[in-house]
Amino acid sequence: MTETVAALTAAVAGHVRALRTARGWSLDELAGRSGVSKGMVVQIEAARTNPSVGTLVRIADAFGVTIARLLEPAEERTVRISDAESAPQLWRGSEGGFGRLLRGMNDPSFVELWEWRFAAGERHTSENHMPGTREVLHVLEGTLTLTVDGVDYTAAAGQTIDFLADRAHTYTNATAEDTRLMMIAIIPNTEWDRRSP
């Protein structure tokens, strides 16, 4: 497990540094565009921290890439098969729940495939994503409450929710049973400067 975290931290460091320098951006420019502090960007590029999913989202959005692009190994293959257990868990709930990024693609469109499990009472709040981002959630087990713009939407096993994720949203398991779902995130293929209105 420690080896996997170290490999992911190193991959993120290399990709962030390469993407930033390829654009000719300073550390301050990336910090401004992403809304992530310059100190955190320095820590990430030096592979001295394991950034949160929120931090990765902000940096990926600034570059106009998916989180998966920041995590991917250097070599890209025509066909790739991977085990769910080896996918990076980017969110861990207090009661054992998790969110893991199973796979992401950057070409020709930006798409991410996630697996989420929420134990009883767990919740995850996500910041707004890049304008135009959509998420499609399919509930496999249990019941999920999605809150968007202060309104709750509830979906049970076998139901699918499709929504605009470019605003803050929260996933909650308000039941006594585990909730499991698959999520596809479709992200616009463009850079996003959070300083812009």
From TrEMBL:
Keywords: DNA-binding, Transcription, Transcription regulation. GO terms for cellular component: cytosol. Transmembrane segments: none annotated. The keyword 4Fe-4S does not apply. InterPro entries: Cro/C1-type_HTH, Cupin_2, Lambda_DNA-bd_dom_sf, RmlC-like_jellyroll, RmlC_Cupin_sf, TransReg_Diox_bact_type. The keyword Transcription applies. CDD domains: cupin_XRE_C (cd02209), HTH_XRE (cd00093). GO terms for molecular function: DNA binding; DNA-binding transcription factor activity. Residues 16-70 form the HTH cro/C1-type domain. This is Transcriptional regulator. It comes from Phytohabitans flavus.
